[in-house]
Amino acid sequence: MAEAYRAGTVAVIGRPNVGKSTLVNALVGARISIVSHKAQTTRHRLLGIATFPAGQLLLVDTPGIHRAEKRAINRSMNRAARGALDGVDAAVLVVEAGRWTDDDDLARAALDGAGVPTVLVVNKIDKIKEKSALLPYIAEHAPGDAFRAVHPLSALKGKGLEPLVRDLLALLPESEPHYAEDEITDRSQRFLAGELVREQLMLRLGEEVPYSAAVAVDRFEEDGAMFRIAATIWVEREGQKAIVVGKAGESIKQIGRASRENMERLFGRKVFLELWCKVREGWADDAAALRLFGYE
Ligand code: GDP
Ligand code: MG
C-alpha cells in the first residue's frame, strides 16, 4: 500500500547566517529563496516549495521571530513569536555545528511553548573535522525529547537532506499537494521576478523606502530564448519616487541592472527588463490595488 501524500507549512527558523536560505535552496533544488521583502500582508512568507513523491513542503518564514530584539525575550515577545508560528504544521530550527550563540537561544525561545513539532538541523557539518565532536554539542543543546529529530547535515554540499525530508513530511497532515508542479514554475518565475526587484530596493534603499512600496510585474513574456519583463515599483508619495529614481535616474537604473542580472542567473536565460516607478496615493488602503499586487 502506498504511503499517504502529505503537505503542509514548515517554518524555517534560526539566527542570521546559519544557512537557512542555503537549506531552503537545497530542498527546493533551485535558487528561489529571496533574502528580503518589504510589503507583506500575509503572516507567513513563502520561501520555497519543495515537492517530493511522498509530499510537499511549503517552507515559510516567520517574520515576528526574525525581527526579534535581543533584549525582548519576555512574555510579550514570546507571545508575538508564537503568533508568527500560528498555523504552521512544523518547524525547523537551524543552528551551526560547533557554535551556539545568544541568538540561537532567542530563536529557540521563540519555539518554546508554541506547540509546533520541531526538527533541529545542525548545519555546516562539513566544517567539522572531528565528527565525534558533534555528539556533546547535540547532547547539550538538544537534550532528551526537546526536538522531534536532530539532523546533522551540510546544506551547502546537499548532504543529509533525505532523512530530514522524510522526518519533516511525517509531521505534516495528509493532504493533496497545495501547488501543482507546473503551477510552481509558472507562478514562481513571475513572482520571483518581482521579489528580485524588491530585494534590490531593500538592499540599496533600505530604510529610505517605506514598507508600503510594492512591486507589480506587469508583463512576463517569453520571446524566443529570452524573457521580456516589465515591472512597476509603486510608492505612495512623490518624495519616495524621487528616492527610488535617484539623480538622473541613476538609482532605478542600478536597481534594474542588478535585478536583471539576478533574474538571468535565476532563470538561466537572457532577460530584457523594463522598470518603472509610479506613485499611487494610499494604495496600501486600496483593496483593488492590493489585489493587483497579489497581497490578498
Ligand atoms: P541564512 O542567513 O541563515 O539564510 O544563511 P545563508 O543560507 O545565507 O548562509 C550563510 C553562509 O553560510 C553562506 O556563506 C553559506 O554559503 C554558508 N553555508 C550555508 N550552509 C553551509 C554548509 O552546510 N556548509 C558550509 N561550509 N557553509 C554553509
Ligand atoms: Mg537567508
Summarize the model shown:
The protein is an alpha/beta fold.
Features:
single chain; 296 residues; alpha/beta; Rossmann fold; GMP Synthetase, Chain A, domain 3; 2 domains; six-stranded mixed beta sheet; three-stranded mixed beta sheet; 9 strands; 37% helix; globular; binds guanosine-5'-diphosphate; binds magnesium ion
How would you summarize the topology of this molecule?
Layout: E1 6-13, H1 20-28, E2 45-52, E3 55-61, H2 63-66, H3 75-85, E4 90-96, H4 102-111, E5 118-123, H5 134-141, E6 149-152, H6 161-170, H7 181-205, E7 214-223, E8 226-235, H8 238-245, H9 250-267, E9 271-279, H10 287-292
The site of guanosine-5'-diphosphate has 15 residues, from α1.
Characterise this structure.
The chain is of the alpha/beta class. The protein has 2 domains: 6-170, Rossmann fold (3-Layer(aba) Sandwich), CATH 3.40.50.300; 189-292, GMP Synthetase, Chain A, domain 3. It is built from 10 helices and 9 strands. It has helices spanning 20-28, 63-66, 75-85, 102-111, 134-141, 161-170, 181-205, 238-245, 250-267, 287-292; strands at residues 6-13, 45-52, 55-61, 90-96, 118-123, 149-152, 214-223, 226-235, 271-279. Helix 7 (181-205) packs antiparallel against helix 9. The longest helix is centred in the middle third of the chain and has 25 residues, at 181-205. The two termini are 40 Å apart. 36% of the residues are buried. Mean pLDDT is 82; it is low at 30-42 and 69-74. The structure holds guanosine-5'-diphosphate and magnesium ion. The site of magnesium ion (MG) has 3 residues, from helix 1.
